[in-house]
Amino acid sequence: MNMSTGHQPVTIVMIEDDEGHARLIERNIRRAGISNEIKHFSDGTAALAFLFHSAKGPVANGPALILLDLNLPDMNGVDILARIKSEPQLKRTPVVVLTTTDDKVEIQRCYDLGCNVYITKPVNYESFADAIRQLGLFLSVIQVPEVET
C-alpha cells in the first residue's frame, strides 16, 4: 500500500534520535503494509532543513507525513511541531507525535498545536498501525496499488 495524494506519493519524514526506536518504527510501518519512502533524521536541525529548505522537502515538493519524537538532542519536538503548523504550506501536513512521556499537559499542548496522533513509546504495534492507517483514510490518501496485467 502506498499512501499518496492524487498521484504524488507521500514521503514519511521520521524525526527520531534513537536508532533502535527508528528501526522499530520503520519495521512497524512496513508491517502495516505501507511502502512509502521514509526519510529518517536523528535531530531537529537536519529535519527542519529538509522540511523547509530542501528541493525534495514538502514545502518545495509536496505531501508528507511526519513522525516526530519530542525528545531530540538539539531541540524540543514541541517547538518543531509549532514551526510545522505555523508554516502555511506545511500546516495541513499530518504529524504523529511519538514520545516516552504520557504527561497530560504535554499531550494536550501537542493537540492544541495541531498534532494528529500522539503515541507513547514503546510503540504498540497495533495502535501504531491503526493510527497510520486512520491518518491515511482521514486524508483519503491511501491508494490501492494498480495490479499489473
Notable traits:
alpha/beta, disordered C terminus, globular, 3-stranded antiparallel beta sheet, 149 residues
Name the overall outline: globular
> How many separate domains make up the residues?
1
CATH architecture: 3-Layer(aba) Sandwich
> Tell me, what is the CATH class?
Alpha Beta
User: Approximately how much beta-strand content do the residues carry?
Assistant: 15-25%
Quickly give the structural class: alpha/beta
CA distance, first residue to last residue: 18 Å
Mean pLDDT: 84
Largest sheet: 5 strands, parallel
Q: Give the helix level as a range of percent.
A: 40-55%
Radius of gyration: 15 Å
Q: Can you write the helix and strand succession as a string?
A: EEEHEHHEHEHEHE
State the total count of DSSP E strands: 8
Q: How many alpha or pi helices?
A: 6
Low-pLDDT sequence parts = 140-149
Description:
The chain has helices at residues 19-31, 44-53, 58-61, 77-86, 104-113, 125-138; strands at 2-5, 8-9, 11-15, 38-41, 64-69, 95-99, 117-120, 142-143. It has 149 residues and is α/β, with parallel strands linked by helices. It has a single domain (2-143), classed as Response regulator (Rossmann fold, 3-Layer(aba) Sandwich), CATH 3.40.50.2300. Strands 4-3-5-6-7 form a five-stranded parallel sheet, sandwiched between helices. Strand 6, helix 5 (104-113) and strand 7 (117-120) form a beta-alpha-beta unit.
